[in-house]
Amino acid sequence: MVRDATLSRAIAPNRRIVITFGGQDYTTRVEATDPDEFTVAAPLDERGEVPIRAGDRVEVRSDNEAGQIWFEAYVRGRRAEKVPVIALAWPRSYERQQRREYVRVPIRMPVLLIFPAAEGRPEIRCEARTRDLGGGGLQAQWLHPDTISDLMGRRLIIEIELPDGGEPVRAVGTVVRAREAGTETTPIAELGIEFVQVSERDRNRICRHIYNRQIELRKRGLL
């Protein structure tokens, strides 16, 4: 069990956190903490309380101005207090990522890039593929026969279909790097894109996918 200063700040009474159970994200809040466990308000969905029981395991994520931490927690049971709560054991370890240093990992997946029409320039819509992905942005490539120099600094809309069965992640980004990466016969544009607007829910989905990808790569000895 670990409960250092970082974890204590992230899991503190009244702090909002996200719990993932059964492939679904539920936003809740921390109700109380003690040396052995912490309690959170029982998550709800359209049918009522989510059926999380003693012995289940959930993923917990806390996001604040400094960054994000996430860990797996063992459910110790339910408590009947002023509001129904779930008691969770403190984790043995946790992952931490500072906001300014979101990890990117190599991931190849389809991504739709939409450059809105602006200042006389036409709209560009292209189906690209990511080279890497992180909570703060991505690197993408696509076949692009025209010059890419005018894409630097442009805002765009990004749509990513994550393999979690949810709706596509939709974010607003800025091109911070652009270069030609192909040949004369096969021109490829390679763009570095930084997210400037993305919902907390979608960023959490990206970070969860990155976390799972890191585990997979470590098991294969590739990270």
Which features would summarize this protein structure in a list?
single chain; 223 residues; mainly beta; Pnp Oxidase, Chain A; Thrombin, subunit H; 6-stranded antiparallel barrel; 6-stranded antiparallel β-barrel; 2 helices; 16 strands
Instruction: Specify the CATH architecture of the largest domain.
Output: Beta Barrel
Q: How much strand content do the residues show? A: over 45%
Structural class: mainly beta
Alpha-carbon distance between the two ends: 25 Å
- What is the CATH topology of the largest domain? Thrombin, subunit H
| Outline | elongated
CATH class of the largest domain, please?
Answer: Mainly Beta
**Total domain units:** 2
> How many helical stretches?
2
Number of strands: 16
Specify Rg, calculated over alpha carbons: 20 Å
In terms of quaternary structure, what is this? single chain
* CATH superfamily (homologous) name of the largest domain: predicted glycosyltransferase like domains
Strand order of the largest sheet: 1-2-3-8-7-6
**Helix coverage percent of residues?**
10-25%
Instruction: State the major sheet.
Output: 6 strands, antiparallel, barrel
Query: Mean pLDDT, as a whole number?
Result: 84
